């Protein structure tokens, strides 16, 4: 499981530039205050602060990339086991419990990572439910798809969020960005077609269910991403404050649904290495969320999206290399088209923001 970037990310790891439009005002205010503080400090002290911030940002960025790539392949290995293949709800609930506990500890006065700000259950319930649904759908997509297709399908979050922002809030994208989005969608469509064709060795790499789950996960993640911006602005919450409110409610929703959606696996039939991977998956989920929110808070949505692009390239490349299958040339062509379209779109949006 991977959060959108915001979660994720919960923040997927992997949110649209336009999905953070409602948060940009708060980021601009913080940056203006930070710049004013720097001007009042001596040059040596200012350089020291900048170096310290740059070093922390680099550490968190490396941690984010490693943990995001690691959790995708860890979850894929977990769900390849028959005992966990149909238990994505339990896995998501486990991740939410670990994440909520980590954020609660980080918010304690002793650690002081951030100051908690609580919102009522009824106000948080809609976005918490959306968060739970989109994470479960992402897990189902990963269970029934190749890693390469699962990760590329997440790029469709960008045009979906742009469309929802326009429909709901009349937030427009530059006209020049339309062609890159068309390229992006076309590339994903090509990969979807060729990755779901039956293979001579062992059926199709991505099943029809995998395609359905991937597309519905993108739709659910789009709604969740748009709501993130809305909740940030309405309740004046930072990313960590928002996730601290969401995670326990999402975990509760999933825990209540487990008896109706799943049957408990026989512990004796689960290999010990799978339990080790489950523990590792929870640790990586915490690192993904904490590092992703630090990156967005410290450097803004643009830097977060650029790092997301890097993670996509790494995951697709490793998924291809570790699959042990021959990848059709048409799929490679589709991957290149999708990544080129995403890069062009990001470049256009960055120039417009400047």
From TrEMBL:
Domain of life: Eukaryota
Membrane topology summary: Multi-pass membrane protein
Keywords: Cytoplasmic vesicle, Endoplasmic reticulum, Golgi apparatus, Membrane, Sugar transport, Transmembrane, Transmembrane helix, Transport
A Pfam family hit: EamA
Segments crossing the lipid bilayer: 57-79, 91-111, 118-137, 149-169, 176-194, 206-230, 242-261, 273-291, 298-320, 332-350
Major location category of this protein: Golgi
Residue ranges of the region described as Disordered: 1-20
Chain ranges of the EamA domain: 209-344
Family, similarity comment: Belongs to the TPT transporter family. SLC35D subfamily.
Function of the protein: Involved in the import of GDP-mannose from the cytoplasm into the Golgi lumen.
Record's subunit section: Homooligomer.
Protein name: GDP-mannose transporter
Species of origin: Aspergillus pseudoustus
């Amino acid at each position: 499981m991977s959060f959108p970037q915001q979660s994720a990310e919960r923040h997927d790891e992997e949110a649209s530039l336009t999905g953070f439009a409602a948060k940009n005002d708060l980021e601009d205010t913080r940056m203006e205050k930070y710049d004013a503080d720097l001007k009042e400090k001596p040059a040596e002290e200012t350089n020291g602060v900048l170096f310290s911030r740059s070093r922390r940002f680099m550490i968190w960025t490396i941690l984010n990339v490693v943990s995001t790539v690691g959790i995708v392949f860890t979850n894929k290995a977990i769900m390849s086991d028959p005992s966990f293949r149909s238990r994505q709800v339990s896995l998501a609930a486990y991740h939410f419990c670990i994440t909520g506990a980590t954020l609660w500890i980080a918010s304690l006065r002793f650690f002081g990572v951030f100051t908690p700000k609580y919102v009522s259950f009824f106000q948080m319930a809609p976005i918490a439910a959306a968060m739970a649904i989109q994470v479960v759908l992402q897990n189902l997509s990963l269970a029934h798809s190749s890693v390469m297709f699962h990760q590329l399908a997440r790029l469709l979050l960008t045009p979906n969020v742009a469309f929802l922002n326009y429909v709901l809030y009349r937030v427009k994208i530059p006209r020049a960005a339309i062609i890159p989005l068309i390229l992006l969608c076309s590339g994903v469509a090509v990969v979807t077609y060729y990755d779901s064709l039956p293979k001579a060795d062992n059926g199709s790499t991505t099943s029809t269910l995998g395609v359905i789950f991937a597309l519905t996960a993108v739709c659910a993640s789009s709604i969740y991403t748009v709501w993130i911006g809305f909740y940030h602005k309405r309740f004046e919450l930072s990313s960590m404050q928002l996730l601290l409110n969401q995670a326990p409610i999402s975990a509760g929703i999933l825990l209540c649904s487990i008896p109706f959606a799943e049957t408990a696996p026989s512990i004796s039939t689960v290999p010990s290495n799978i339990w080790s991977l489950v523990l590792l998956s929870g640790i990586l989920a915490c690192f993904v969320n904490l590092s992703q929110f630090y990156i967005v808070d410290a450097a803004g949505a643009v830097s977060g999206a650029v790092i997301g692009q890097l993670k996509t390239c790494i995951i697709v490349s490793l998924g291809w290399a570790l699959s042990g299958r021959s990848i059709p040339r048409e799929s490679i062509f589709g991957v290149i088209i999708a990544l080129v379209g995403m890069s062009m779109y990001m470049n256009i949006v960055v120039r417009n923001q400047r």
